[in-house]
Specification:
By secondary structure, this protein is mostly beta strands. Helices cover 9% and strands 56% of the residues.
């Protein structure tokens, strides 16, 4: 990790919760996904977000918005400030180099009627940045 904060969002087909709280991420999608025709539909689409920060860094309010190509927000996760503060305090007391969090979102079915970019936008204090991106396009299958 470089800097005080890293937030990575992965779009995937499924997230399974395993015994002991571990997660299995299934079918991580590449940056670009082509469908043979419109409308395009996936049975479901997950967004898995991993937050990693220096415990000395106070991020203030932290949230992720799942934004569709038209600009509408279909899901949002906000990390409770008290939870972040408590985790930072524990990490500092234990001299841990980082503190981390995980959040998940899912939509089912996931449908698009036109090409465009689906984004996960992180909001930390008064700054925003893209932490996950998925460009969906149509590319007809070649005829044989």
């Amino acid at each position: 990790m470089t800097g005080a904060l890293s937030i990575i969002g992965l779009f995937c087909e499924d997230i399974r919760t395993e015994a002991g709280g571990m997660h299995t991420i299934v079918g991580i999608l590449p940056e670009n996904v082509d469908f043979p025709q419109w409308p395009a539909t996936l049975p479901k689409l997950h967004l898995y977000v991993r937050y990693l920060m220096d415990p000395h860094f106070d991020p203030g309010p932290v949230s992720i918005r799942w934004v569709m190509p038209e600009g509408n927000v279909i899901a949002q996760v906000r990390l409770p400030t008290e939870m972040v503060t408590k985790a930072r305090t524990i990490a500092l007391a234990n001299k841990a180099p980082t503190v981390g969090f995980i959040s998940q979102m899912v939509t089912s079915p996931f449908s698009l009627s036109a090409p465009g970019r689906v984004q996960a936008i992180a909001h930390v204090n008064d700054q925003s940045f893209v932490c996950g991106s998925l460009y969906v396009n149509v590319k007809p299958k070649p005829s044989s």
